[in-house]
Amino acid sequence: MKQARPRRSVLYVPAANAKAMAKVENLACDAVIFDLEDAVAPALKAEARTSLQSYFRERSHDPKERVIRINALASAWGAEDLAVAAASSPTAILLPKVETAEQVLAARSALDAAGATAVRLWAMIETPLGIVNIREIAALGAHESVGLECFVAGTNDIAKETGLSIPAGRATMVLWLAQVVIHARAFGIDILDGVYNDFRNQDGFLAECAQGAEMGFDGKTLIHPTQIEPANGAFSPSEAAIAEARAVVALFSAPENVREGVLTLNGKMVERLHADMARRTLAKAGLPLEG
Ligand code: COA
Ligand code: MG
């Protein structure tokens, strides 16, 4: 929410898939997560890491945020992944299956030791223990030196680890997702919704984007380029929301209302807090804040 730049659409790209990697520069997503973890089979881990290293060397600039998801530091691949990622200067490293604050701090120390102090950290929250410990993990958001900027909800892993299914509407999962959203907000961390697997189903995807936006997510993680445009739309203020925001700001800015705390607009109560929210909507849409 405090983000300086939008993170509406964040596309995973398996680092072992050269064809998909070659497309990234021309895609209109806000950020990309190059994946070395679960989208890469064990037999291809080393090859994927080398391809990613060349990719960053050859394409040193892309205005999008570029994030590298490494394997867990405790795994056989984690340390080498981190070394390559640190040397590639991505915007951030995304840590999978984070369950404790110590895991985040260990990654920070390793990055700093590698000289990558500017590289930020993102964390996947996708296990029961990660959700149970969310407060101590999120509290790191208050420490600038840790650089923990963003949480990513890993809905497929939550389903795997808990045994719950993911029906349309995600009734079984919103309770857990809401825990992550509220803790992210409490400590000023951005929060991205999980992926929608049925990527040919545009209606289902739009419905899930709308639900994610209503729940307060900043954006959605994506698996396919066709999901980018609908996600950008769903996580941007609508025309109606912009019009209403302008009206609220104008109402409280009118000379006759300067001393008013509560007013009526189109039959609804509006308070000064709604004017603050309206300015946030205008900022999100990249519009001037005064009507
Ligand atoms: N990033 C960039 N390009 C992608 C892409 C992605 N995530 N997913 C597909 N594309 C490209 C394909 O390479 C293909 O290119 P082409 O037209 O030159 O052949 C084009 O988009 C159309 O792809 P399509 O044929 O519809 O899908 P696919 O069968 O090639 O791939 C998936 C389907 C699901 C395997 C693929 O989208 C994917 O790997 N997504 C990411 C999965 C992932 O990272 N998971 C981990 C986190 S949950
Ligand atoms: Mg996962």
Give a quick rundown of the structure.
The protein has 291 residues and is α/β, with parallel strands linked by helices. The protein has helices at 18-23, 45-58, 78-88, 101-113, 128-132, 134-138, 155-162, 174-186, 202-215, 228-234, 239-253, 272-284, and strands at residues 9-14, 31-35, 65-69, 92-95, 120-125, 148-153, 190-193, 219-222, 262-265, 268-271. It folds into two domains: 9-234, Phosphoenolpyruvate-binding domains (TIM Barrel), CATH 3.20.20; 239-284, no CATH class.
Structure characterization notes:
With 291 residues, the chain is of the alpha/beta class. The protein folds into 2 domains: 9-234, TIM Barrel (Alpha-Beta Barrel), CATH 3.20.20.60; 239-284, no CATH class. Helices cover 43% and strands 16% of the residues. The strands form 2 sheets. It has an 8-stranded parallel β-barrel with strand order 1-2-3-4-5-6-7-8, surrounded by 5 helices. The chain has a two-stranded antiparallel sheet with strand order 9-10. Helix 3 (78-88) links the parallel strand 3 (65-69) and strand 4 (92-95). The mean pLDDT is 96. The protein binds coenzyme A and magnesium ion (MG). Coenzyme A (COA) is lined by residues 11-14, 19-20, 23, 35, 38-39, 195, 223-225.
